[in-house]
Amino acid sequence: MSQNNGYQDMTSTQLLMKNIKEFFGRLNKNKAAMVGFYVLVILFFIAVFGYLDARFGWLGISSTKTNLTARLEGPSAEFLFGTDHMGRDILYRIFHGMHITLGVGFAATFLAALVGVPLGILAGYYGKWIDSIIMRIMDVLLAFPGILLALFIVSILGGSTINVTIAVAISAVPQFARIVRGSTLTTKNLEYIDAIRALGAKDFKIIFQHILPNIMSPIIVNTSIFLASAVLSIAGLSFLGLGVQPPIPEWGAMLNDGRNYMYQAGHITFFPGMMIVIVVLAFNLLGDGLRDALDPKLKN
Amino acid sequence: MIRFITQRLIQLIPVLFGVTILVFGILHLTPGDPALIMAGESAPEATVNAIRRRLGLDNPLHIQYFDFLKNVLTLDFGTSIRDNIPVSDHISARFFITFELAVISTAFSIFAGLLVGIVSAVWKYSFWDVSLMVITLFGLSMPNFWLGLMLIQWFSINLGWFAPTGWGNPNQMVLPVIALGTAGAAIIARMTRSSMLDVIGQDYIRTARAKGVKERSVIFKHALKNALIPVVTVAGLQFGYFLSGSVLTESVFAINGLGRLIIDSIFARDFPVVQGTVLVLAVMFVTVNFLVDITYKFLNKRVDLN
Amino acid sequence: MAEELQQTNVGLDESPEAVLKVDDLRTSFFVGKSEVKAVDGVSFEVPKGKTLGIVGESGSGKSITALSILNLIEKPGEIKGGSIKYKGEELVNAKISRMRKIRGNEISMIFQEPMTSLNPVYTIGDQLSEVIKIHQKFGPKKQKERAIEMLKLVGIPSPEKRMKQYPYELSGGMRQRVMIAIALACKPELLISDEPTTALDVTIQAQILELIKELQEEIGMSVIMITHDLGVVAETCDYVAVMYAGRVVEYADVYTLFENPKHPYTVGLLNSLPRHDIEQDELVPIKGNVPAPHEMPPGCKFAPRCPFASDICKEMPELKKIDDGNDVRCWIYDERWDGEKGVKVYENK
Hints:
The complex is a heterotrimer. Helices cover 72% and strands 0% of the residues of chain A. Chain A is mainly α. Chain A is elongated, with a radius of gyration of 22 Å. Chain B has two domains: 2-73, no CATH class; 94-299, MetI-like (MetI-like fold, Orthogonal Bundle), CATH 1.10.3720. Helices cover 78% and strands 0% of the residues of chain B. Chain C is an alpha/beta fold. In chain C, 30% of the residues lie in helices and 22% in strands. Chain C is built from eleven helices and twelve strands. Chain C has an eight-stranded mixed β-sheet with strand order 6-7-8-3-9-10-12-11, with helices on both faces. Residues 1-15 and 341-349 of chain C have low confidence and may be disordered. The interface between B and C is medium-sized, with 22 and 31 residues. Chain C: Keywords: ATP-binding, Cell membrane, Membrane, Nucleotide-binding, Transport. Chain C: It is a peripheral membrane protein. Chain C: It is found in: Cell membrane.
């Protein structure tokens, strides 16, 4: 478990650099993870471009223009992915909606980490009653399965892009806190941390210079794995009409639009769902790869 | 073992307590008047007041909570704002459907997952192994509600084989079970595979071979029973998720279970029903996890060398 | 005893009494495109009713040799060639169904790790009865009787109770006794014990070795005793094959080997062993380590650590019988050797 043995002489920056180097070496060997990584990079650029295009209209395409003469049209040369019930081009909607799916997923995950990581460090580092209180609260949050907690929160806050982000983030906080607490405990008990403390280092310094670099791996792994489920949760809530609200072209919300027209136009539900699958698959591939590359238990 | 169970039971108490506080508290912690939230922004003053009085919202918060807790312990979750029927009646009317969906979906997950996992492990790195593992990766990455929609599209609308909605006769059950169970099957398949590969490398498998045991028995008798221990845990956790997490599937297939009850009640702002149902689902989830924990401990007793 | 040794004829000569004859066995493991020759041309034979010791450091290929005999080598390993004859029957490339009838029945094996060699989810009784059920035509009642009888034989107290217990309820020594009971349940012709006592306490070690010896006399089986411990060899074996880096470097009867070792490696091993029968000034360890597979020298694999190495050692010497009855794989005993002839055993350098 202790990958730090022999690393004591290094500064935290050197340690971090060494870990990063090792990690990319390992990740590079995992073909599936690299496929996931490249797919995500491509999707990321498309999302940024889609966002800018939606704002500035560079390409001169519209994802919002309704066209009642071309409703529910199947895929054709003119509309590659067909049109929806209001005659909007589904391809353009997916294109302009990509930054929402990715952005909200990242935002929820980032928020969850922002709250969960410090809680985990506090619980693991200080132990005793601080640990008990934090972890009991996390246990309570973990008593709600899957998206039920997010659903419950959204039901009271009301459905909106921000609320769904917050709700999904809250439901993920305990996962981060648990994992970070565990790694903090392991790191804290290493002999060299004791030595540093004996030399009079302040808690703050120990946490930032020595604990944090050592627990980065589990945080990164958990983040990448959680991104996949964040995207799924957000799409799910939006699909129920409780997340991102129409007419924002979020993919889950688009599926909700399309489900009423399945008998006439199945393609409305096909393409946005396919895009969710691609994004989630890419996150899963990368997450698996990162875990293999970073998990000290699986090293060698 | 008894000590372990008691210990875990005692740990459950603060968690369950916390769950009631959370379920009770969220409504009150949110900015704004809960009665107004329930009645809707544009409701007349009299309606809002009626709701407030009925739910005892005039009382101080801690009195409200203790009333809530007292009622909950007697399985009284209040009455629905929509139709004045006790919440517990709503829940008991729908519980069995959700339970049935969860049991059948778990069974499907275990069956499909074990099959795929064992095939993959026995012929590791073969064409079948690689293909099956790619398929399970898709299974994990598919939103179950989308899979549900696609199943309806293909098998109900295009082929007309199965009913697209409802629950009760087998014709209606096939698609929801596949939609809900596929991700679970994928997880169980991957778990079984890695667990089998781990076990097949153990010394006692070599012993079995050295005894002259047939390869089929080596796999199905000696390896599988050991490999199943972590799989049992995963399957149990899946059951917990299915039991309380079938909201989306019930919505897609218009199944009148607890998940759909929550969604309908959220849209109708019927918060006593939402609270009661969420509470029941959370308690069931905690209970299932507790049982899984005990089972794992029991099964693992023999295997854990320390 | 000495006369008997003369009769059974040490070495690789044809001997009708050998239960097992291994000739030029080669087993390799394939890592990516590179081949690791774990066993590279091993030959020996096991006379009926006798014990052959296979000695060597870890990584010398002794366990792989043992697993090869029962065809238990798994991918990425593979038996590349050579011959393993059990009572004249070729086992390399034998049908898997035939191998299954031999395993646990005619040739049995016990392993180094008693803690992990029993299946944790089945009772002792299940695992012991299984081997009886596979190889004997007994009814369930007779199976159980036989199982209990075997547990008694290996000295396990209250066997009826033990039958219903799981491995985790037994100590390491008890588990190894169970392993021996399983191995001997069908009265095999040959028992392969792969470091059966390495993982056990010293006092238990002696008991287990004594048990194997007793049962050997009772059943009249032959034994291959694989060990890195020359003490175990001295106590239990009639013949010894010393292995180094996948090859047998010396083969002799146990008295000859201890009194008159020929190969520099054997000499080194004996010099590093404390002895009661001879006065020793100090223990002399062998210099260096076994080279890693990719660093193996051409020719004699021991040359880099050998105090007598010369140019000719870059060629591989043959395993040849020399005057005193030892088979030795070393240039020192070749006509072409121009250096000092012979080595004094307990000379301290």
